[in-house]
Design brief:
64 residues, mainly alpha, globular
Amino acid sequence: MQQAVTRLMTDKDFRFFEQTHGVAALSGFDLTEEERQAISTRDLFRLQELGLEPWTARWVTALR
């Protein structure tokens, strides 16, 4: 999950692709369905439960 989140944080084209194509954009990463959904829905609490540090999880939720 960390690789997917790092790419979202550093690659604006990928970030746009993920925002417009949702879960399909994350298919290239070794993620569980639960991790994909947490990233796609920007679920702060779920992201933290799945192991993201609070600061990173908050950053992901700000990508709306």
